[in-house]
Amino acid sequence: MLTLSLGQVFATHFRAGEITARRLSLTTPTYEITLTGYFDELDGKQAADGQNSVIFKIGNATGTGTPVLLEAPRRARNNIGNNTSQNIYTATYTFLTVGAYRISMEVDARNDNILNLSPKPTRELNFYVSTTIEINAAFGLNRTPVLRNAPIDIAAVGQRYIHNPAAFDADGDSIAYRMYVPQQGGTNGAGVNLGYEAPNLTTPPGQTETGASPATFGINRITGDIIWDAPVTKGYYNIAFIVEEWRDGALIGQIVRDMQIIVDDARNDRPVIPPLQDICVEAGTLINQKVNATDKNGDKLNLTSVSGLYDATLIKPAIASFAVANQGAQSSVTGTFTWQTSCDHIRLEPYNVLFKVEDAAPPGYPNPSLFRKLVDMTTLNIRVYGPKPTGLRGTPVTDPSGPAYRLNWDAYKCQVTGAKIVIYRADHCTDIPEDVCITGIPAGSDYEEIGRVDVNQTTFLDNNGGEGLRPGVSYSYRIVVLFPRPGASPGEPGYLFGGGESVASAEFCLNLPVIRPVITNVTVDSTSTTKGVITVKWMRPAAATGLPAQYRLFRATGQSGTAFTQIATINTNLTPGAADTIFVDRTLNTEANAYNYKLEYYTTQNGQLTRFDESETASSVRLEQAAAQPDQIGLKWTALVPWDNSNRIHRVYREDKTKPGTFNRIAEVAVGATQIFSYLDDGTDKYAADGTVNVTIVKDSTYCYKVETVGSYNNSQIKPSVLYNFSQILCVSSSDTIRPCPPVLTLDPLNCDSLRQHPGAFCTTTGFTNHLSWIYPKQADGRDCDPLINAYRVYYARYEGDAPTLIATVTTPPSPLKTAFDHEGLTSFAGCYYVTAVNRFGSESAPSNTTCRDNCPMYVLPNVFTPNGDNKNDTFQPLECPAFVQSLEFRIFNRWGAEVFSTRDVNINWDGKTNGGKELAAGQYYYEVTINFESFKKEGVETSMKGWVQLLR
């Protein structure tokens, strides 16, 4: 390890600085070493004037032995504002051997009055920084990252401060960041930690810009954003952080930057740059990115940008540019970042571009030199990927080893020296995610690399390594281009690592046509005991043999149910776009049951519909409670489907109790290779994209959930490629261990014929009784049921679809497996019931099956009446008592078909006259009556009757 150290030559009043290095030769370990130092030009100008050189100390990483001293002259000095100058010191050194080295430098003294460093006074503390590098011929002409953004900015009391070093690695190595402690020089070029407090801990706790407490301070390990939200006390603060350089998973170097933040009680608001979204572009794309900045105080703005993309020594041309109209003249400015990307810019790591806005004293400001300029900044990350290879195709060929394919493709756009075309193969047609920010072949997609050729090649023979391909397999192929790191030397280890990839080519697959329908969705749309809804979708066959054709959809209760009943017949001509591949299954008890579906496919053979094939069965997703701690809810779900739901990201939703009926996604669960999936909810919302709704899991409180499975057939011929299906809604309590299972309910049959044989049985409007009985199961849907049931709850709804109400709580008899209840005093037999079981924790099961009962409708008309005024049989009306009639429409006609009377009176009460009061002649008349009987359905049950009646006088 190499250490550069600056000796005690001048009192320079150092504010900030870092050391960088770059290798100059592949044959010798010769490096150019640079110190970029930032001096206080207000209180230390004289010392800065005299600091014409610095001393580097070069030693091994362990700190043993005497370090080499290397003097580096000053090459440049630039005033960068804020009473600060940037000073560049450079020297060249050839190392004796490979290994890890530390380069350090130290110089008296830091500037005074730094609030968060000790001991005091800080002017008596020297300034020290170091950089470590790994010298290895395998790393080629490696360069440390360079930090393009100066480490001096003004922060304002009470306002959020942000800084980013704009680190740029020309070799395409990965960069990471972490906080460090400012140091002063020790022995043998090592550093010694100073007394240090994080800036937000140096002052009273304070609060953030938005009013949260306490103030916060930290660095983002990935982006390098340093955010202090927000300073409390004005003054100088120094912090240090490390910029790490990674290659092929190994740390190969790190830079320590020591920087100063100047906090002032500015009577000014910082300008604002809205964040920019990261972008991914294909090599060859011309980027024109607009960058906006505003100042609410109306201060004039300067919008600038720093990046290695502007430096031709760091990237191959074309370099980027940044232009700002009306620079420094308006309080709202827009800049345009322009970069013509090329094949030379392809790499794995994104390029970063820092945009920084600084305000200036407004016109008429009393003393512009005292105006504290404030800044804001944002970073644009740009990933440049290789173009997608095109024209992949294959031809079966004869090979001595057996079946083989000759693959061919179009000449590739980016002929980058050293790039390779990688050929991948899978044993079935398969889709992969299509996203320009996802290059290469995603992990877990079943593709395996089978060969590589140079980027200028356009053909490859796949004979399975000389063993021949397996007959009858639908092989799938894709190709990807792998690029070397920018500046890497052919032959060095890791040459192709970090250089990036192209997007994968389109698939070439020996496609065997799908000749039967394939179910793709069984998703629960609505959870209810009587009005549950499941949508079933399928994909039509590719083959159009034997048209017209027909689908027949079957349903069975239970995920593994086999008692299938046909529920739909759908004719089809396999017309693209026709709505013949979807069925919405309604009036289900999705709360208590899962359902299983299959599809039969019929084609026309010899003029007759003939069963051709049937699909595999597919069930709805069933969500259940799993074992958990008292402050957690355990969930598990299953789906017996022909597609693959494993090794995917499933989605878990929880009802927001403040918004009943609204479900918030709380987690995305990475599931393994299993058909039973699970999640443990501790109340934390782990998915923030739709808003964060955290809860505290409380004993005996109920929480409602649903899950959405994500699956695929992994077959590019089956669309859509990704399948989403919801479970039913499950409401559970943390007190549940084994949740009670729903009982199985029956209603005693109603013998309508017997009732009708008893005249006057329906003349009362009260006193009807429904007798319910149920059985409690030991198992349901393959799970054990809690045997310790304390009570059953009986729910009733007058009409199907109404919200059921609790009408009784029945304590269990000595045997908890069966009980009964009489619902008495009814005015109608019609209604719907379900029963739930309640365990010792008060946890209630899902509802039983919902059972609805209809009435015994009765409406009997005579065939003769005598409207002669003797008060005996003078009107035509129903015999006995009409039973459960909601409404009717009665019409009577003479023998020539003319209507002579009509009424809506349930009892009719026709007196032998027309509606106008004219007496009708004796004779035979004909009637039609439409009756709407009371039912458990709100719309009732409509019945039509026709007959004749003899009018006698």
TrEMBL record:
<dbReference type="InterPro" id="IPR026341">
    <property type="entry name" value="T9SS_type_B"/>
</dbReference>
<dbReference type="Pfam" id="PF13585">
    <property type="entry name" value="CHU_C"/>
</dbReference>
<protein>
    <recommendedName>
        <fullName>Gliding motility-associated C-terminal domain-containing protein</fullName>
    </recommendedName>
</protein>
<dbReference type="InterPro" id="IPR013783">
    <property type="entry name" value="Ig-like_fold"/>
</dbReference>
